[in-house]
Amino acid sequence: MADETEDSVRHFLMECHKISIEAQFIVDSLPNAETPAVERVTHQLDAIQEILVGLNDPYLHGEDLDSLILYVTSLLSPLEDFLACPPLPAHAHIPRQHRSGRGRPAYVLDLQRAILLHDLGNPWDDVAKAMGVSRATIYNHLQAAGLSSARQEWSTLSDTELDKLVSEISQAHPFVGSTIIMGHLEAWGIHLPRARVQESLRRVDRLGVLVRWSGIIKRRVYRVRGANALWHNDGNEKLRPWGFWVHGCIDGHSRLIIYLECRSNKRASTVGGLFKRAVAEFGWPSRGRGDFGRENNEMERLLIEHWGENHRAYLRGRSLHNIRIERLWRDVRKDSLETFRQIFMYLTANDLLVMEEPIHAACLFLVFQPRIQASLDRTRDAWNHHKIRTAGHRTPIALYELSRETAIARGYWTGDMGDNLQTASDPLYGYDGEAPNPPAGSELDSEALGPVPTGIQAEREAGICLNDDEELARVQEVMHDFDFAEDDGNWGIDVYCKAVLLLSSRLSASS
């Protein structure tokens, strides 16, 4: 009998734990939580509190029980305050226009914005909810304006035309599958059913389909408050041996790529500059998450300067805790970086590239940096337009814009978009607990915070850069009439070889 009682209490406490997790998330979302959700969890917490007060269990110490009751009370207090003084309804922020006849003033809705959100893949119910009105209201406004509420029509494209486009994408990005290819097409304004893209890919790249199918990895669940609540940033060093560093940043809620840039170094000033440019475009994130690398120092400083010391504005941890962007790197590698890695290995194997030769290193960077960046730009557009199965087949840009619209309608977009301090203080905040560990080689955590190397030689030894900026500038000056971005139809290999020969001859002549 005692075992049954102990088991019953254990199951009750497990259920309490599940409810408290949801309650904490709702509390963190106040005052932007849904009233029905607040009412539901309040009733559940009331019931838990009543049971705990009357619980007389020999397996629970009195202090533990008091602590549980106190925790439930701490959750109930803000929820009850919210229900006692609910915020204004979402539609209260919508401007109205007085009309000549009888009736209430009509809402003034941005119908083009509504259509854009819908065309991005969001259902009308979600668009209406984000804008603070009902679906019927949006339908009525569309009808009055003579606009259609129908889903964006499929693009008219023959199989031959589609196969040509898919073949071009597959050749430029040989390691990606149908989902990312659909993202490339959507980024070009081509809207097609998934089945047609899959069939086309089978026609033009049957072997690649089989290889990619064998490597599918199941995706896991992740949740933060909304867009701009938490940005994950990191650096990818797959091309570091050849002098290229790729810097990335992703919005945790929507998986929207904030920036994806190829640079000649991983200095803190470089990462800080990319972050400031991103803030100018997307607004301030509430928090950032990155590893312990010194390159994150400037981004951390900017966030703390903006939000204050007590906000926990920048969260440092192992790459294990930054899996959101670690997953992105896997797709970026397949969609973009692996192609260039193979090119550089080919050049090295054929004695066309010796990285210890400054001329080779400089020409390689000047020829391939714009090509890598163009590839990353295409990858970013494709990623931001690819459909995520676990998000209702919506795209990152659709999720981001919908969350942004919700925040604008409720008046907090220009404020703090993040979770409260208690939630953000959890060491595992913004962490996919069930996700697979990042691949070996992605850990850069041994590079602890410390003095920043000064001077080009010290930076090279620390793995911060390879090419000296002044040397690159001098090469560009010497080669002022050379087109490093010329399309040679051979991935830039021919242009690189010409650049090495021409630069060698000009430097020899000048010396």
UniProtKB/TrEMBL annotation:
One annotated GO molecular function: nucleic acid binding
Pfam families: rva_4
Domain Integrase core residues, every copy: 221-401
SUPFAM superfamilies from the UniProt entry: Ribonuclease H-like (SSF53098)
Signal peptide stretch: none
Cited InterPro entries: Integrase_dom_put, RNaseH-like_sf, RNaseH_sf
UniProt-recorded name of the protein: Integrase catalytic domain-containing protein
Organism: Mycena sanguinolenta
